[in-house]
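Before the break, one more example. Copy the sequence into your notebook; we will annotate it together after we see the structure.
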Amino acid sequence: MHILHVIGARPNLPKLAPIHRAAESRQIKQTIVDTGQHYDDALFGALLREFGLPAPDVSLAVGSHSHAIQTARIMMALEPVFERVLPEWVVVYGDVNSTLAAALVASKLHLPIAHVEAGVRSHDMRMPEEVNRVVTDRLADLLLTPSEEAVATLLSEGVPESRVRFVGNVMVDAVLQSRPRREGARQPRRGIGVTLHRPSNVDDPGRLRQIATALVELAERMPVVFPVHPRTRARLESLGLSLPGVELRGPIGYHDMLELTASSEAVITDSGGLQVEAMALGTPCVTLRDTTEWPETVDAGGNTLVPDPLQIRDAVELAVGWTSRRTPAGWDGQASERVVDALLAHRS
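Here is what the structure looks like once it is written out:
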């Protein structure tokens, strides 16, 4: 069997890594195509190396553009690659523009598509990621879901049950496989970790000021560590917000972020991935959004949604010390093996 993986953005890599490892252990031929949607080495290239993944077989270097232009350029660049390689499976990940573009091209070339993280929904069509998820799921031949909720969502949307396979959350595999690297450095929990990058939080000056004020107030009581995304840093600087008392860092690698999460009393984020990683590490999560694509983390008691920045301080105080949690189904570190099983079982 020949699998072609399409990646292009940082969130794809913790999903690709365990699946690539599982397929490699079975001596399955694999091709990695990097669209170049994320091209900053600190955000993407370094993480690729950190996971021990091989250099991509094909790099398209499409760069940053509007959603429409970026998606179109990825499609134009992918088509000749797909026609040349003709894989048995085109595997796409998550909800970035590269995912949607690859699904559209593969569909028109009649190449089988497998979508890892199918059925995930925030139910907020204002998010570009939600549009990408919904359309990709309509095109995919094999929908590999991370949760039982995602299975129910797909069936309720009319997807035939024969196309749906519950495999579990591959991001949890990546966290669990990273534990041996972290054991020696594990420290007692202390303070709050923060990540913010979504336009709904950082592009609204009034909202960003409120978030900054809340973080400064928290920093008066406990350490607050904030690895700042370049986009977020630019917004803070344009507003003259310095966040006194908050430890501002540059972008950090995956394993360093896991260590920060594992050693924090709670994390504040608007990232989908960090909600999962925090839950897997037993760290309470406060999500600065009014919806989540991971409702199982809320149901399990490890995550709380905070749509109003004025509620951040109270939410963090309630979150610190949470102990009652259950592990969602499929969070056992074997999801990547089940993905490969499904690809083998459904090959044409």
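The mean pLDDT is 92. The chain has two domains: 2-169+331-345, 183-319. Try to locate both features in your own notes.
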